[in-house]
Design brief:
Distance between the termini: 49 Å
Oligomer: single chain
Structural class: mainly alpha
Strand content: 5-15%
Helix content: 40-55%
Shape: elongated
């Protein structure tokens, strides 16, 4: 039974390095230090999100519908994935996403006006 490659050490959390490759057909083994691709560093949830995002050709609205999540959640997941891949988004984008999440929670009555106002002021 084949196992999926993991990218983080389960003990210390540091990045793992592939040290051996094996061909099942001819039996050759190659040893060395091989890096994982950037995409291998994503979690299963993040990879699923990327598949859905690509299937929908980058349409955030379509991703919202497919995954039954809100626009701010889609943006948050995109920002997290970009960070893992080394493409950090601007702080301004993060604040904008947080602001929208607060407003969405206010609209769905999860927060009172006073609570939302206080959270917005903290941004």
């Amino acid at each position: 039974m084949r196992k999926e490659v993991i990218s983080k050490c389960p003990i210390c959390g540091d990045e793992l390095m592939i040290s051996k490759l094996h061909c099942e057909n001819c039996g050759i083994e190659i040893s060395g230090e091989f890096e994982l691709t950037k995409l291998a560093k994503l979690s299963k949830e993040q990879l699923t999100f990327i598949e859905i995002f690509l299937k929908n050709q980058g349409s955030i609205k379509s991703v919202e519908k497919d995954m039954n999540i809100s626009y701010p959640t889609v943006k948050k997941m995109l920002n997290e994935i970009l960070a893992v891949l080394g493409y950090d988004k601007l702080e301004e984008d993060k604040i904008s996403t947080q602001r929208q999440e607060i407003l969405d929670r206010l609209a769905s009555k999860e927060l009172s006006f006073e609570e939302a106002s206080a959270l917005l002021k903290k941004l």
